[in-house]
Amino acid sequence: QVQLIESGGGLVQAGDSLRLSCAASGRTFSNYVMGWFRQAPGKEREFVTAISRGGINTNYADSVKGRFTISRDNAKNTVHLQMNSLKPEDTAVYYCAARNTVVYYSARYDYTSEDQYDYWGQGTQVTVSS
Questions:
Q1: pLDDT for 80 beyond 90
Q2: What pLDDT sits at residue 96?
Q3: Contact, 93 vs 123, CB < 8 A?
Q4: Rounded to whole angstroms, what are the CA distances from 5 to 78, 94, 106?
Q5: Using CA atoms, how far apart are residues 71 and 109, in angstroms rounded to an integer?
Q6: d(C-alpha 77, C-alpha 26), whole Å
Q7: Confidence class of residue 26 from pLDDT cuts 50, 70 and 90?
């Protein structure tokens, strides 16, 4: 099992930047595909970005591509989400998610769906004012 704790959220103005962090417990962080999802008021949780175990491959939702960057530091059991040029529509609770690929691995997974992850953080609020 792994516990995920997000941090770095806050209230910013449009055009500002934020850097979210997700700290994971355990010794097997490098076995986990990591992702970020977000849920805006009145909407379903949506995929934001994901990063492979070694950090070589990344995927981004079209809505954030070019503005957000995901990264990880396996030595520190952390994953980050750098958010630049924030827009009011980015306002949401942001969740860190993990999939232990040693416990279960599927080549069919693209890690863009929440049901493809087995661990979730409690979320951190990001509010972008206009």
A1: yes
A2: 98
A3: yes
A4: 10, 11, 25
A5: 20
A6: 8
A7: confident
How does DSSP assign 43-61, residue by residue? S--EEEEEE-TTS--EEE-
Sheet strands (E) in 17-110: 18-24, 32-39, 46-51, 58-60, 68-73, 78-83, 92-100
pLDDT digits (tens, 9 = 90+) for 84-125: 999 999 999 999 999 999 888 888 889 999 999 999 999 999
Which residue is it, tokens 């595909």?
A: 33
The pLDDT value recorded for residue 21 is: 98
Cα gap 124→30, rounded to integer Å: 23
What's the half-sphere exposure (Cβ side, CA atoms, 13 Å) at 41?
A: 6
Which phi-psi region, left, alpha or beta, contains residue 125 (left: φ > 0; alpha: ψ -120 to 50)? beta
